């Protein structure tokens, strides 16, 4: 078994994996799946947006890059405009230098897009946004309408404060909810409607405060009621009051842990390992996958086939991605190799970053609709095809193992490695890697990575305005609350409620939030199962199962067959 050149852990390479490496002519990776994933995630800043100026127009823009980047940053419209061309930054390949070093030069000169926002309308504060309309602060925003404050909300409408929510409508404070409608304060639910405070429920409607129920109606805190009784009891509750919400959360929490759960979250899967898998087949260690087939070590993907080591790729309805290896945030593309942020209709790209509508390109940054380019330089088809194998060979022989500055003892070369960690323009703590692989500042710096010092929030420190008491009951919230500055109960940071948001709380009869978005989101993340598999036995038939429920967790974990056969 090879030992990871990054963390030293041993890892196995399965025959299925080997086939993949053969397809892409990659020697076995020298880093373990977790280190490979971490490396990719270090390039993804979802949530931290900054004010800066567009380096093309001088206009003030919002960007995921703070001031002081080595490369110019353009506002979204200007980046997409014809006022500049990525080819003007082209470099000749230099076979006396490691390829990644040359990519770094290109990276540091080519204009970058302020934040990723493709085919969107009125989604100005949504980073990593594709095909969405009228959304606000949704990060990983694909195919949505009228959604606010979310992360990985895909193909949904009117969902607020949701984390990993898919094909749902009118959801609030939902985590890992799929195909749900009018659902609030719930997690791990599929196909539930007109309910609140559900945990691990499937196909339930008109339920309140229930845990681990399947296809039920009119239940309150897991107790059955007649329809009439249910309606009467629910009508007596004022869910627009924070006290009702707090009380209900406490009662639900008392039921959590006694329920029977399936060994993974999801449905309609065949031959899969991982968690949060929906309509998937032949998946090895996949997390948060929808409609995927034959994928290995993937996470947060929709509609991928025959792919390995890919993260954060949401795709709009009706499109698919195929044959992608070691990629981060790519779209409906064909045959992509170690690419990043290249969303739309690309094919046969290698080591490309933020390229759209491109084909047959290698090591390019910020190109639109180009073909046969290497390091942003245009070639003829013949020249491209002659040069390609030479560069691949050059990368295979580059003994730096994919690190740019560090000499590593690995012999695998840099071919097949994702971009070197040092090339990430972000501080480690600005990236989503910090969520899945948390590091202290000392650890990050020791590893040679950047760290983003939190800017002293001057507004926060100097704020001398009145401390506004947030009303308990939404009925007591006046329109003027939207003009006031509120203080987060958790982080002490200032935040605001916007009119559209207030309208949503009123319509849904929900109390105003008391914490800022980032604090709310952090608390939601804590409810998700870790991306780690334990070997356990089904609590019923004793068959061996793999599950993200750690052995010390209180839930009763069943294999799929036993779960499906059990009638509640
Ligand atoms: Zn079983």
Structure description:
This protein is 20% helix and 30% strand. Strands 17, 18, 19, 20, 21, 22, 23, 24, 25, 26, 27, 28 and 29 form a 13-stranded mixed β-sheet that branches. Strands 5-6-7-8-9-10-11-12-13-14-15 form an eleven-stranded mixed β-sheet. Strands 1-2 form a two-stranded antiparallel ribbon. β14 and β15 form a beta hairpin. The protein starts with 14 loop residues before the first helix and ends with a helix. 45% of the residues are buried. Zinc ion binds next to α13. Residues 538, 540-541, 543, 558-559, 561-562 line the site of zinc ion.
Tally of DSSP helical segments = 13
Rg for CA atoms = 25 Å
How many angstroms separate the termini?
45 Å
Instruction: Outline the biggest β-sheet.
Output: 13 strands, mixed
Secondary-structure-based class equals alpha/beta
Apparent shape = globular
| Helix content estimate | 10-25%
Q: Total number of β-strand segments?
A: 34
pLDDT < 50 stretches = none
Q: What's the average pLDDT?
A: 94
- What hetero molecules are bound to the protein chains? zinc ion
Strand content: 25-35%
Task: Write a compact overview of the structure shown.
With 568 residues, this protein is of the alpha/beta class.
């Amino acid at each position: 078994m090879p030992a990871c050149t990054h963390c030293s852990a041993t890892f196995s390479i399965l025959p299925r994996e080997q086939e993949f490496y053969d397809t892409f002519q990659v020697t076995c990776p020298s880093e373990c799946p977790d280190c490979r994933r971490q490396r990719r995630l270090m390039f993804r800043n979802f949530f931290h947006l900054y004010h800066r100026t567009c380096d093309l127009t001088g206009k003030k823009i919002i960007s995921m890059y703070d001031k002081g980047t080595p490369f110019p940053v353009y506002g979204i419209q200007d980046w997409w405009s014809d006022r500049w061309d990525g080819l003007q930054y082209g470099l000749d390949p230099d076979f006396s230098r490691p390829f990644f070093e040359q990519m770094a030069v290109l990276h540091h000169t080519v204009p970058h897009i302020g934040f990723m926002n493709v085919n969107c309308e009125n989604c100005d504060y949504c980073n990593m946004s594709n095909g969405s309309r009228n959304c606000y602060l949704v990060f990983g925003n694909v195919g949505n309408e009228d959604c606010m404050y979310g992360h990985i909300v895909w193909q949904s409408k009117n969902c607020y404060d949701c984390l990993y929510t898919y094909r749902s409508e009118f959801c609030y404070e939902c985590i890992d909810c799929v195909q749900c409608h009018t659902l609030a304060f719930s997690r791990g639910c599929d196909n539930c409607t007109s309910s609140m405070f559900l945990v691990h429920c499937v196909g339930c409607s008109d339920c309140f405060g229930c845990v681990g129920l399947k296809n039920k109606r009119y239940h309150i805190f897991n107790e059955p009621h007649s329809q009439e009784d249910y309606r009467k009891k629910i009508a007596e509750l004022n869910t627009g009051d924070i006290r009702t919400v707090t009380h209900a959360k406490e009662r639900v929490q008392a039921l959590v842990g006694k329920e029977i759960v399936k060994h993974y979250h999801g449905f309609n899967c065949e031959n899969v390992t991982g968690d949060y898998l929906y309509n998937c087949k032949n998946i090895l260690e996949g997390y948060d996958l929808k409609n995927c087939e034959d994928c290995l070590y993937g996470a947060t993907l929709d509609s991928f086939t025959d792919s390995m080591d890919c993260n954060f790729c949401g795709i709009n309805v009706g499109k698919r991605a195929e044959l992608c290896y070691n990629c981060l945030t790519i779209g409906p593309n064909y045959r992509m190799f170690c690419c990043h942020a290249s969303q739309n209709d690309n094919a046969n790209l290698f080591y490309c970053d933020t390229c759209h509508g491109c084909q047959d390109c290698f090591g390019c940054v910020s190109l639109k609709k180009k073909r046969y380019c290497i390091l942003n330089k245009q070639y003829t088809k013949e020249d491209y095809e002659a040069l390609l194998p030479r560069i691949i060979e050059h990368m295979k022989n580059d003994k730096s193992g994919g690190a740019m500055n560090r000499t590593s003892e690995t012999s695998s070369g840099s071919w097949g490695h994702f971009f070197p960690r040092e090339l990430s323009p972000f501080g480690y703590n600005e990236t989503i890697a910090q969520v899945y692989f948390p590091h202290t500042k000392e650890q990050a710096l020791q590893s040679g990575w950047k760290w983003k010092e939190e800017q002293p929030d001057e507004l926060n420190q100097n704020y001398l305005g009145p401390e506004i008491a947030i009303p308990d009951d939404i009925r007591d919230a006046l329109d003027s609350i939207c003009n006031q500055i509120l203080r987060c109960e958790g982080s002490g940071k200032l935040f605001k409620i916007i009119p559209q948001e207030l309208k949503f709380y009123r319509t849904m009869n929900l109390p105003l939030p008391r914490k800022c978005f980032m604090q709310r989101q952090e608390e939601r993340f804590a409810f998700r199962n870790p991306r780690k598999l334990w070997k356990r036995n089904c609590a019923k038939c004793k068959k061996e199962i793999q599950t993200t429920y750690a052995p010390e967790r209180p839930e009763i974990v069943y294999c799929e067959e036993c779960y499906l056969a059990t009638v509640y």
